[in-house]
Automatic annotation (TrEMBL):
Chain ranges of the Helicase ATP-binding domain: 100-274
Bias (Basic and acidic residues) ranges: 565-574, 593-602, 727-745, 756-775
Lineage, broadest ranks: Eukaryota, Metazoa, Chordata, Craniata, Vertebrata
Keywords for this protein: ATP-binding, Helicase, Hydrolase, Nucleotide-binding, RNA-binding
Protein's name in the database: ATP-dependent RNA helicase
An individual GO BP term: anterior head development
Catalysed conversion reaction: ATP + H2O = ADP + phosphate + H(+)
A GO molecular-function descriptor: RNA helicase activity
Record field: compositional bias (Basic residues): 21-41, 746-755
Native organism: Chinchilla lanigera
Polar residues biased stretches: 603-612
Residue span, Helicase C-terminal domain: 287-449
Region (Disordered): 1-42, 564-640, 703-862
Keyword Metal-binding annotated: no
Amino acid sequence: MGKTGDSLGREARADPVRSFNRWKKKHSHRQNQKKQLRKQLKKPEWQVEREGIGRLVQSYAQINVNAITRFSDFPLSKKTLKGLQEAQYRLVTEIQKQTIGLALQGKDVLGAAKTGSGKTLAFLVPVLEALYRLQWTSMDGLGVLIISPTRELAYQTFEVLRKVGKNHDFSAGLIIGGKDLKHEAERINNINILVCTPGRLLQHMDETVSFHATSLQMLVLDEADRILDMGFADTMNAIIENLPKKRQTLLFSATQTKSVKDLARLSLKNPEYVWVHEKAKYSTPATLEQNYIVCELQQKISVLYSFLRSHLKKKSIVFFSSCKEVQYLYRVFCRLRPGISILALHGRQQQMRRMEVYNEFVRKRAAVLFATDIAARGLDFPAVNWVLQFDCPEDANTYIHRAGRTARYKEDGEALLILLPSEEQGMVQQLLQKKVPVKQIKINPEKLIDVQKKLESFLAQDQDLKERAQRCFVSYVRSVYLMKDKEVFDVSKLPITEYALSLGLAVAPRVRFLQKMQKQPTKEVVRSQANKTIEHSTSSLTNDEVEEFRAYFSEKMSILQEGGKGLEETEYRLDSGTSDEELEEEEEDHEEIEEKLGKARESQTQSVPNTDEGQEVKDVPVQFLDGDDEEEDGPGDDFLKVKRRDVFGIDLKENKTLQKKESSKSSVKKKVTKVAEAKKIMKRNFKVNKKITFTDEGELVQQWPQMQKSATKDKAEDDDSGGINLDKAKERLQEEDKFDKEEYRKKIKAKHREKRLKEREARREANKRQAKSKDEEEAFLDWSDDDDDGGFDPSTLPDPDKHRSSEESDSEETEDKISDTKKKQGMRKRNSSEVEAVGPASHHRKKAKWESLEPLDTGLSLAEDEELVLHLLRSQS
Ligand SMILES: Nc1ncnc2c1ncn2[C@@H]1O[C@H](COP(=O)(O)OP(=O)(O)OP(=O)(O)O)[C@@H](O)[C@H]1O
């Protein structure tokens, strides 16, 4: 046996091929088994991803805010991290560090941080992660809603979202006004992340049948306080009502107001309040240098021009209080050619133009943007060096947002606020109270370039520009008038005439509400006092109060339209407070007033006590330019002067009652038609007013309405005790009409008669002249034969005038009824028939005379005699 085994082993060793084959077989078998096992073990991709998500979610609980410095320190999806890295975002900012973790954990967050501190990514990262966690697809519909106050901000947020979220598969859409609603409606249902403005969103909710937000996971309100400021409180409430209650809500802003907290109370559940810079010394970026100057209103344009001339290589934004100011000053400055490109951005521009301007200003390295407050919030223009606030902001919050367009994310920037002497104290106090470090700097009057003369010459040549200047004037004055904070804004202190001149106008346009206001100063002061009492007693904003303010501004609007509520109703009607043009103007200004409306609510809750802090402003003369500027742009300038202002206000209680009356007006401003006006007059039993005009001699030339002349006049006037009776009025009108027609006919007749008499007189004169010439000819004949009394006697001819006169007087009555042209033709015919009738008779008589007479010896030749006779005959005919 042992031998046999040995022999076998030897055989195997002897045949290596066989043993290799055997090994190979075993090995491949094992490999196949492994392969099959691996195949069995392999999970689908979605499953692996889900497991990864699970791990991420598990680590949310372990997020340690203090340990986070980079985005990669957060448990984020690879796709989001990749997007952030590709956009060069690696290190987190403070607000991102503190809020992203909370938002990932699914909490509602109310976040506030200084301007330019990166709030956009603080909500966009959680947005992407929320949908990623749920493995959202386009089939799932709307998952996240991001609401921004302005179109530009929505557009900007959308762009950042596209950049950071490009590795995800979600669909994102931008829905803002100014575009085709139908086109949007077709696409809106395929959008997973919707960036929009509130008005447009609500429009889709109301009008786009297929649009719904039932599966919404997250709502983001960017610049929430601004959304409310712009009068969108009702819209927001309506939107929120259409959203599912089970959702996550994030709310961000650089400034926190009471109204935002109210909104948070309504829309956020157990929110985490994150106010990053609450304990910071200043509420504005540390890299922002802030100054203010005080100058007279009429100097402001020259100050701006001088500023631009000395900052030609800088990028600046200049804020104005109204669209019409931007429109006019943009045009004027373009003509002044300061040497830097000027752009304008305001709410009255077409959406396309707004986008173009936005992109153009983003691209430019040196330019100046004239803008209204639509550019004040959230816009992230790169490398802006200067923010100049040409008109005083409504409040400290608006100041902070405007100034925050520069010095963004670790960059430097400078802000300059121009204040009127009357605005200085109130505004500076507010700013200091809001922890805004502003210093006063001065103007160097020598460096101030006066442009008033140039403006005057522009306006003299260009009517359109002149009208724009007038609109700018009214718009500015009105904006000051509408400002709620009367501690700062006092329209009665404005140097109206000087301001108009500084705009290039020869005279100040009439501003009705100012005239009315000047007539009732005592009333205003009383109202102001009442207003103040209410302001101080207000600690929180209730819905009623919001409505009260809406009413207040509605009332303001109606004051503007009706020319002053303080007047007796009859009086204001007759006075017709506002012209059509003014009404139109006010309609245009509605948008702006809506903005003020929100502001009013806010300032109501934030009355500023007078502290001495305001006095601490240092009066340091500082140049406009830093060292570099001087080299680049020429020498810098300094400016200044100081004064005080006064107060007036409006009684809120009074407005509350008025609001009830005018509630319909408050929400939607209707155009007042002439029919509506007439109906109102009828209802109020007004006597229509009469306008009487006299000539220089004191004669009545025109009466409006037409003076009653018919027989019914007295009767009608007696009836006029109870307003306008339409039937009676109609009857009277018909009577008047008849009477007028008769009067007219009489007048025409008299006119015709006068004309005929003149013509007759003219003819008579002509005939006399003719007769005279004949006499002369006869005298010539008589001279040749004095004794001959039987010669040709033209006086024997019938007097054509006599003949004509009798004929005319007979036919006068008939002729009166003939039209002018017919009559002329008729007269011409009659004249020719008269000649025809007279001709043969005279000829006959002449013939008789010549026959009875001896031939005359004229002393001429026969031929000459014949010629003389022919001549006499011709002149006779
Ligand atoms: N982590 C980051 N790393 C680098 N840059 C960042 C970061 N976060 C934000 N930024 C940049 O900072 C700038 C300001 O960001 P953002 O617009 O989000 O500020 P904001 O706080 O929303 O300002 P505002 O209050 O004015 O709206 C932007 O240019 C943005 O690209």
